[in-house]
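Predict structure. Chain length: 396.
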Amino acid sequence: MSCKDEVELQLSRYIDHELDAEERSRIEEHLRLCVPCRDLLRLFQRNESVLGNALSGEAFGAQMVDGVMAEIRRLEQPTIVAPLIDESGGSVKERLRRTWPAVAAAALMLLTAGMIISWPPRRAGSAELESVKAELERQYRQALLESHAVQQQTFKIMEDRLREMSQELRDVAARAELQSEPNHQGLAYYNRRAAILHFGFSKDKFSAFDVYRRRQGQESWDLLKQGLPTPSYEDSHVEPGVTYVYKCRAHYQGSEEFIESAPPVEFRLPLPRGVDPQFCLRIVFQRSTDPSQAVFRVERYVDQRWIGQEYTVTRGERLGRNETLLGEGVDLTTNYELESVSAGEEILVGKVGTEDRAIGMRPNLQARLRARVPVPEGEDVVSIWRDGEVFIPLPR
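Prediction complete.
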């Protein structure tokens, strides 16, 4: 089985129990021999676990809503009472059905306090029913606020985990790519404004690893990190448009001898068409909760560093504005508005030595920005992958 061509699809079908006995036997034999593929399988299995937990949480919420609605119907049987109306014109029951997460939170609070299930089984009078409804209304309003905060925190946790899994997927793809290269080869790729480095050394033979860097044209090497437990490193101190050269020194176990990676790996932080950072804006696509909204960070290069602001924009809304940052006025206005956010497959590109190489694909979100007026120097439509960035020239 070719890791590059077949394994990702086969592992997905393996987890979904779609392989026949012969195919399962073949992929299990491959997993026994291939460490990167075993890493990829564990990553897929964690994805399945995350989705399973999310679904079980939804089922629990639905059960709680059913319990609350059943109790309301029981209390309403003896007496006909007009439903309580909120400012938006909807009844309590209608709002409960529309917003089950908030109702689930309120129901849990009520049940814990024993306000419903501890009552004796008798017919409820009109005054008692109104009192219960008033208390439920109060708890409902409070739960709305708490539910929103919980949902935001849950979304943030899930988003962070998805980013971690995305990074793990890239690392697995990089290690699999290095398997087909000669020993001691290196590979670098770009991720969230950092150079991610992997070198083809076995941890069975080597005990520690040192990473060195120099700028292209520079003679001497700078030591970035010494004594790493694995032949991997993330270099976040890179400047856009500058080419760096990296090498790794691996120390043999139980010996003072070492060997260095060869050839050195070149890496250049993307900067389209050689745009000078001082005359452009950088736009970073950070996240999105639905196809009509996205969060971007717009930055400008000032005094040898990038400073900027985060913006949440909806479809058709212009990105950026004039800001006061570090006590000075900074123009972060762009000529672009959000057109759409869609799901797609991002091609992962790495550099082996000096050669560009596609090392895999990953599911990701892509945002499209459209220029509000034609752009003389630049593109009218700009596409950005989540956690990616583009550089656009400043208006002249």
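Summary: The first strand starts at residue 186 and ends at 190.
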